[in-house]
Design goal:
It contains five helices and six strands. It folds into two domains: 56 residues, 2-Layer Sandwich (Dna Ligase, domain 1), CATH 3.30.1490.40; 115 residues. The strands form two sheets. A four-stranded antiparallel sheet has the order 2-1-3-4. It has a two-stranded parallel sheet with strand order 5-6. It is an alpha+beta fold. It starts with a strand and ends with a helix.
Length: 188
């Protein structure tokens, strides 16, 4: 709902309700000034026009910029990208500690170190999925935000998802190579 104002004119009568844009036009025309008494339509208190911060610019000859503009809604793909990117980094950090423990447990119970290393490779390989999904949704989210900037926000979230997604992709790739190298060492 647009905020409207009432104004006491030179004839000492209330005029309005008018929008902020209309009131700014009256300022430009000289029909309202710093000491003109106005009030938002939903209140009973009259105050000088100069006490309203949203009209400080128009009183100095600048264009009117409404203060109460709602922020655009964050695009769902941007939020998804950020959540997936952060969770994939957490999973990578957990895997760095859990992969060696899992390898020891599997090797101790099965008695075959090759099986333990293969299980670790599968586990690390699965870590690539949320990272890749983060990168894909981040790029799709940025594309959608650029296509409709007035409708969607969340560009920072999409970039955060891309950065964390690419970081976790790199980390999981390095971890996968290290585990694969360990598997090749156990086969010999």
């Amino acid at each position: 709902m647009t905020l409207t104002y009432e104004i006491i004119g030179g004839d000492n009568r209330a005029h309005g309700p008018v929008t902020g844009e209309e009131l700014c036009e009256w300022i430009r025309q000289g029909r309202a000034g710093r000491n003109t008494m106005i009030r938002p339509s939903n209140t009973d208190t009259w105050r000088p026009l100069s006490t309203f911060p949203e009209f400080s610019g128009p009183l100095r000859g600048l264009p009117w910029i409404p203060l109460y503009q709602p922020a655009p809604k964050a695009h769902k793909l941007a939020v998804t990208s950020m959540v997936l990117g952060i969770s994939s980094l957490v999973l990578i950090a957990a895997a760095i500690f859990l992969v060696p423990v899992g390898m020891i447990v599997v090797a101790a119970t099965a008695g075959r170190p090759q099986l333990a290393v293969f299980a670790a490779m599968v586990m690390v390989g699965l870590l690539i999925l949320p990272s890749a999904a983060s990168v894909i949704t981040g790029h799709a989210g940025l594309r959608a935000i650029k296509a409709g900037p007035a409708e969607y926000g969340g560009g920072g979230m999409a970039v955060a998802g891309l950065v964390t997604g690419y970081l976790s992709l790199a980390a999981s790739g390095i971890l996968f190579v290290l585990v694969a190298w360990g598997w090749l060492e156990t086969i010999d």
